[in-house]
Amino acid sequence: MTMKEEAPSVPECYISEHEGFYGTIKNSTRDFIVTEIDIHGQMVTKPSVSDVPQSSNIIEACPGAKSERKKNIISPKHQHNLKEEKCTPVVKDVDSEPGPGQNGDITSTPSQDCFDLSLILGQSVCEELEQFTALLREASLSPNDGVEKKLANQESSNGSEKKMANQELSLGSFPDKHQRANVHRAVRHNFPFLLTVTNQSEIRVKEDPDFKLLSGLVSEEEAEYFFRFIDTKMPNSVYTFRGDDSKEHRTAVHHFLSRRFGKLVETKSFSDQQQKTTAITVRLRGKGKPRKRMADDSKGEEVYTAFTLRKENLETLEATSYMAAVLGVLPSGFTYAGIKDKRAVTYQSMVVKKISPQRLREKASEFEKRGMVLSSVRSVPEPLHLGRLQGNHFDLVVRDLRPHQGHDTLMELDSLVQEAVENVKVRGFVNYYGPQRFGTGQSVQSDSVGLALLKEEMVAAVHLFFTPEEGDDPQSVAKRHFLQTDNAKEALSLMPMSKARERLMLRALHRYGTGPEGCTRAWLSLPHGMRVFYPHAYCSRVWNEAAAHRLTTLGHRARQGDLVWKQRGEEGIEMGEPSLPQIHVVTAAEEEEEVYSLGQVVLPMLGSSVKYPENPVGGWYQERLARDGLQSCRFRVTPLKLNLPGCYRPLLAIPRNLTYRLEQGQRAGERQQDSNGKSPQASGAVPQHPGADTTRPAGLERQKGGESVQGNGEGKSAVQYPDTDTPSLTLNFDLDSSCYATVCLREVMKCDP
To answer: Is residue 501 scored above 90 in pLDDT?
Structure first.
């Protein structure tokens, strides 16, 4: 490992010892092609299972039924009931037409993987949950013998480490809110009698008192169906209890449902003349609308259209702002999984609200004038969320390769390139946030703005945001004019139309003034994803510094007090949506036995819900925050409606499906694009995505006289390059979400590309 003088935003601390080489990137936008990989592992330029419209408003025909492979997560008592029950639909949708994304079958069964606790929690936690629910059910049948006593007896007898207290069971910590939502939904579906509670990022389960009360009024089977019905949250759907001839008993049920679920449901009793019985029917109310609203009134609401966006030399916000202006909607109506590079050709999924697919297609020609091409336009049931992607695929060209000082021949460069790329392929790189996270080449970087926002210094944050660059370009002239005159209206007239972010701020400052309140309203004029970008930039800078400090002080092994990802019941880390790794503190014995590798070490991203390493690195975090005056920061900016819970980021990242070619001069990159400017991977010619064949040759491919020679990585090449033509390096690889290709290249080249 080497440590050099700290760069402004990305420390020059490396994981490998190879020498590296010089080179340049982004000589052309088409030298840097980025293709998003969705959560299913598919590149967005390929057909994906997510393209198939799916309804979020669905319920099982037989809510209690389970597949054979999932019976292990239901208590024995419930297994018996499920075998005997008849799968008759008990839930209906009173609307005559299916909603967006529905197929018209009102009792469609959702994907069972959504509720498979063995996938979502892991087998060991699933078994703990089974035992806990079995004890709860046993205690409910034996009221004279409390569950606390049974739990205590079992813990003392088997010496397990179950975290049970006061009839509760901890399922662990889940930093990601989407993971928590999956856990809540799956637990409630499989065990309707349980209540799930979140405390910061920890999820605990306990017996639901409402279920206990309802099961005292109706059968337990009906209570289970009813709670599953409530959890579907499908407006205007209905559930009917079994017939009940006792008016007094029906009244008691009505009162209970009204008292506990009155804001969600309305109840009525209906008589069945043929069966000569009366039953209670429950209907879920519509969302925030009068109960007597007709179904036709809701048409046009919650229309979401997804598409794949190809943009070139455009910021993501610049692209969405232009599309919003053309379509007549707000920029905040566009949602996406991640922000992509400006100086590049990028492919990513987006969703726009309140715009139909037909309307979007009609405007496609106008978007093409600004370097944007839309494809795979389709209807979807919901928007995208930041972070809902598996990663990105990169097709890059590094040009003008030359050795570092002391190497004179291109043969030595050939060897340097091979050693460097193979090292990173095997060992990975330090997972820093890239310089684009902080604003490359800006006088004031984004993390400085974020620090001011975390201190709720709104006016100072605005002034930092409008700090101009040197020179007389139109943007700098407009910024300089605003700071000198405090006249937002005049600055707005000077600001280029392409600077959507700055124009939104200036428009709000003109309307509300430049005082503290006006500056707060100016920040609120930005979409939430852009507002939170600045505090995240500050947190990212601190993470980068923490990573360099950790490596230089504690080395390349997992040390006592480090935080690691640990999948319950498994020794390794299992990536992917269903896998929910837990944070574990390395013990002295585990350090001695080398139980964990450096690749499993994570560092916390600053936030309100994270724990810090229990070693000197944890103390460093506190000192670093105190240095910036944030020793008591709660990481909430209430005036801007921002909350930073924090997360955990792996210390190292490893590129997947890595291939590379060393080519002569301008020939590099020719195979990167087809006639439409797409990469071979993007156009479908060479599938390279997670799960693809990784046995392809990965040696050096050299170009000479129009012929390609594939290297096997053994010995030095005898190929001689003309002095008048410098070689270039073509790289193709995948990275996980929030990992930076420029940082990977820094590790390869041992310098800023």
So the answer is: no
